[in-house]
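ESCALATION

Customer reports they have been waiting on this structure for their group meeting. Please prioritize. Original submission:
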Amino acid sequence: MERFRLLYALAWRNLWRNARRTSLVLLAVAFGMWSILSFTALLQGWGASTLTAALKNMTSQGQIHARGYLDDPGAMHRLPPAKGRLAALLNGPAVRQWGPRIAVPAAIQSAYQTMPVSLIGIDPVRERGLSFITTAVHDGRNLANKNARGILLGHKLAQRLHARIGQRIVVMSQGANGALAERGMRVIGLFSATPQVEEREVFISLRQAQALLGMGHDITGIAFDLHDINGLGSFIHRLRLAAPNRDIQSWDTLRPMTKAMTEFSGAFINIWIVIMFVLMAFGIVNTLLMSLHERVRELALFEALGLRPQLVLAQVTLESALVILLGIVSGTALAGVTVLAFHGGLDLGFLARGAEWFGAGRVLFLHLRLSQALRIGGLVWALGVTAGLIPTWRMVRRVPIDVINRSPT
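Update from on-call: job pushed to the front of the queue and completed.
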């Protein structure tokens, strides 16, 4: 312990003998650590925003369908309302919210144009907290319940159809018997969402959809969210045991692009860590080489006086470990300040529309866990110290008396 205290005192004192050089290394490590953690928080916020937007956009964490529906969505692939063991699981404590739906391809016609759409019948009470539609209507009024009459259009679709609130339009789709089903409906509200959703999805009440398609009380699917998404895999397994004749899928199967985006953000974080570490390693090794070159007589004299090479190596390594640690602590503190500065969210402003095309929301909430910051900091510290060992070891292996004799007096 006494030996360590002596080495620590020497290492700390040597760091500030050249305060300018030490400060440069500290700033380089601090900036690298700040950029790693800040970029990690931003990418994780992007991934979380993309996932949240996808789940709220009628995907939810999981869905239940009749077999064959996902390959050929239509009223002919329908299923009865949940009952028995399936209903018991959906009404259990693990599920936060679930709702029955009807979703079929359709065409919508106004006096000016006909457009292909996805017609979605919902129970508005069940959709609260499950999808975006219950809070997205900003013009007109929303569907009140599963028996409500009227249709909801996206702003972009309404513009292309030249449709206004109160105007009647015609909805056409293939009914449960295979024949064409059509009905006139009055526009009661306009909703805001991503450009794709505003142009491609229209909403009516569940009872209206059942009556239009001649489905009785049947539905085409059930969507559900859990309190803890980490338990989704085991919950879907239980659902499949309870309803083996149903097609039950999680969000990552239903939205592979969203899964790819979340995985990409994680992979890019690792790539950025490698890039920044390589840049920091060059700075650390270069600065350490300069320091050792300037102190070659000092280190050789230590060995000549009896300090073993292993202890010289320990002292110099301790110096690099201390300055890297100071840089990591400073960079972590700056990253924490950055994340806290945007605790209310980072508004993308004019970039929001572009972000929506990639599935992200207008506001990104930076997300960084303390355990994650400590793990990244520990990794950077270990790699930085390791990078400095090579030049240090080569230096301390030189013959002390030879170094002294060849060094300028």
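Sent to customer with the following note: Residues 2-54+259-406 form one domain.
Escalation resolved.
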